[in-house]
């Protein structure tokens, strides 16, 4: 329940794999930091240059796999994948795509929790690049400012559109809302299915993963119970 407990800061760059090798860690998903690990030259290429390069490299993967790219069905695949990566499923890597959010005064003086539940999102696991499909529930208690409800949804979608691990997605949404809403009273609950677990690896199609963030006033047994009552089906 305490946020520090769900934020283990393991360093995997360098030699800090807790004495395990990459192979031994295998399918176990490590969570390294709140920030998505990005290179300092991440935005040197324009989006068009990125698409061109990804299309060429993805074409090579198809070649290595032995696919005949002259087939009508496969011909456009490298370009389609490149466009999808840059403009859609990984568009949240680009801060330029972060939703612009206006704050309003809490005119109605509503000072209880506000819960936006069942926000469906699609993300991708950064360890396998296959989909994570889930629902996010986001809640806050106004510090005097409010935002449009659809903006909660948009923030979830923005951070989902990156190669992700669920723990980081949860905390990135929470921290962004903390900043925007100028309050620590934020909760985020995510329940998601990881296709890297369902469709391959251990092939468990029924399990799902739940992660939570209870900040400020939400981090009490009473508030957690209240919130869970609102989101249960
Ligand atoms: Zn995975």
From TrEMBL:
EC nos: 3.5.4.16
**Catalytic reaction annotation:** GTP + H2O = 7,8-dihydroneopterin 3'-triphosphate + formate + H(+)
Tell me the Gene3D superfamilies matching this sequence: 1.10.286.10, 3.30.1130.10
State the GO CC annotations: cytoplasm
A biological process (GO) annotation for this entry? tetrahydrofolate biosynthetic process
Does this UniProt record's set of keywords contain Hydrolase? yes
On whether Hydrolase is a keyword of this UniProt record, the answer is yes
User: Where Zn(2+) is bound, by residue?
Assistant: 125, 128, 196
Annotated pathway: Cofactor biosynthesis; 7,8-dihydroneopterin triphosphate biosynthesis; 7,8-dihydroneopterin triphosphate from GTP: step 1/1
Q: Name one GO molecular function term.
A: GTP binding
> What Pfam families is this protein classified in?
GTP_cyclohydroI
Enzyme's top EC category? hydrolase
Which keywords are on file for this protein?
GTP-binding, Hydrolase, Metal-binding, Nucleotide-binding, One-carbon metabolism, Zinc
The segment(s) forming the GTP cyclohydrolase I domain are 57-223
Q: Which family does it belong to?
A: Belongs to the GTP cyclohydrolase I family.
Could you give the subunit structure recorded for this chain? Homopolymer.
Q: Which HAMAP family match?
A: FolE
Can you say what this protein is called? GTP cyclohydrolase 1
Q: Which organism is it from?
A: Aquimarina brevivitae
């Amino acid at each position: 329940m305490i946020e520090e407990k769900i934020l283990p800061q393991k360093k995997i760059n360098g030699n800090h794999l807790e004495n395990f090798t990459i192979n031994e860690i295998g399918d176990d998903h490590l969570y390294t930091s709140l920030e998505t690990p990005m290179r300092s030259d991440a935005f040197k290429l324009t989006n068009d240059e990125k698409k061109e390069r990804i299309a060429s490299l993805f074409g090579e993967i198809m070649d290595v796999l032995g696919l005949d790219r002259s087939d009508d069905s496969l011909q456009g695949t490298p370009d389609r994948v490149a466009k999808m990566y840059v403009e859609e499923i990984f568009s949240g890597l680009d801060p330029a795509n972060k939703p612009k959010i206006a704050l309003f005064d809490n005119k109605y003086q509503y000072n209880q929790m506000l819960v936006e539940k069942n926000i469906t999102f699609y993300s991708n696991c950064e360890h396998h690049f296959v989909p994570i499909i889930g629902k996010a529930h986001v809640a806050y208690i106004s510090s005097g400012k409010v935002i449009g409800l659809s903006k909660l949804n948009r923030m979830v979608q923005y951070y989902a559109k990156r190669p992700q691990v669920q723990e980081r997605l949860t905390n990135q949404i929470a921290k962004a809302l903390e900043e925007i809403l100028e309050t620590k009273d934020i909760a985020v609950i995510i329940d998601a299915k990881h296709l890297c677990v369902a469709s391959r690896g251990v092939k468990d199609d029924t399990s799902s993963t739940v992660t939570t963030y209870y900040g400020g006033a939400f981090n009490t047994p009473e508030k957690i119970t209240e919130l869970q009552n609102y989101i249960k089906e």
